[in-house]
Amino acid sequence: MLLDMAADGFGERVVSGTRADGLTAAGLREAAAGGAALLRAQRASALVYLDVNGPVFPAALFAAAKAGVPFVPINYRLSAEQQSRLLANHPGATILTGSQREAVSHAAYGPTHTVLSTQDWITRASAAGRSAPLDGDEGRDPAVIIYTSGTTSEPKGVLLRHDNLVSYVLGTVEFGGADPEDASLVSVPPYHIAAVANAITNLFAGRRCIVLEQFSGAQWVELVRSEEVTHALVVPTMLARIVTADADLSVPSLRSLAYGGAPMPAKVIEAALGAWPHVDFVNAYGLTETSSTIAVLGPQEHRAAVTSDDPAVRARLGSVGAAIPTVQIEIRDVDGVAVPSGVVGRIWVRGEQVSGEYAGSGSVLDGDGWFDTRDEGYLDEDGYLFIGGRTDDTIIRGGENIAPAEIEEVILSLDGVDDAVVVGVPDDEWGQRLEAAVVAARGATLDPESIRELVRARLRGSKTPDRILVWDELPRTETGKIVRRRVLERMVQDSSAATA
Amino acid sequence: MKLKPGQALVSVTDTTAVLVVKADDRDVALTCGGREMAPPGAGDVQRQPPVGANGNGTLLGKRYTDADGTVEVLCTKAGDGELALDGVPLVVKAATPLPASD
Q: ipTM > 0.90?
């Protein structure tokens, strides 16, 4: 329906890709209709997108919607073993993958999977679209399944229905509200909720969407200039890279820069505000389970915070703003009772866009439709939301959620390791970086560097601790739980001692 | 009929289609071209002539609301008919967009 509206309303406008060879809204509808026909012919149970972000991404997303099957973007950087575990949840799926990627060994695919290169698929879909019926889709059907990593190492598939996504779009975007010259640059990976939300909201607004496949700060500013990008979305790590890039930082076309996904270091946002006084900054907070953004700190609030003498107004630069009009936010204590403003507790949220549903395990919403984000925080007197940290131990490195348990499990499996803990240490560039402490088994000697190599071999670079310390013992409670707060304190102390 | 957010309705007098964005529990008559709107599919069967004065038609992507803002619908297909709630024409709601956040 949303795509049909865009095709009816501004069919000739390029909405995905570069001005020279991008897809128009009408072309996107045709490709999606053709893609849906292919999916139906293959009797596909789902459309798995296992590639970098690109102009085909929205066509695949809408093709799945038209065919009435879930769209499942999966991290192409996962190991073959990890991918194969996720793909096993989707027997009978059609899988789109980049032919040139390090990608997946064929062992990852099951016998029921149909595997196509993204390029072949879009060529065939566009051709089929000329004769396919253009309508289809919607309602309470599952639209998207996005895997997140929770506290445990097994990723959970968050299920978003068309109702959730449509509610989010209608609650936050005006149809055709963008100027014809507007262009939005998306730098988040395709398996992130923001990439899915972006593809739909930009289309509905009539804003051309372009993607940066491999992020570098210098490339980002260059693309903003060459494509005359007006809107962009980054995670804090990317913004840190951009403002410190050894490049010409001028971005005259840029009007709006949204950021989110992890806490923004004050140093970074202040540098960006200083470098680009003409840009509107927007901080967005949301979860996969809430169909993206539920709170927004707008441009005026950013400027007011930077120039204000009032400490409460200044402090708002560290908040994620106020709840959007279609969403309610409540802070509750451990017993689920709402607490007054200023008091830290668990963040709960309610609204049509909130799914709170997991594939295979159902809804976790309470009886009144409230969802427990498992994030901690508080609301100030004016309803500005401040995030205190994760209730769980999830580490957010450069916008990527990393469950320490998964890494700890690998370290603990190594010879000579008696105990291990992985924590996120505050880091200006990454938001958090990984550091680990290990305890040697009796009589064993541990070499941090070789542990790092072994972890890298089993997992991947972004899940390898930057530093591994060998300690005599880990701080634990009487009941045997690791006190991560104390681990972190000691690590931060160690680093400042080392650099002093 | 009772309207429900997320519900799609089509006109039986013209090409207009809407999506209910906001509604309350009241029993109301949502009409286009003076005739009550129907679930999708029903409008194709036999298009009927409009009843009464019929305004300037509906515009794609516009939101239409009643005077006290309790009911809001989004026009998903434009047409020639006029939207009304219990006989009172709906008006175009002014856009109050949020800053682009993603």
A: no
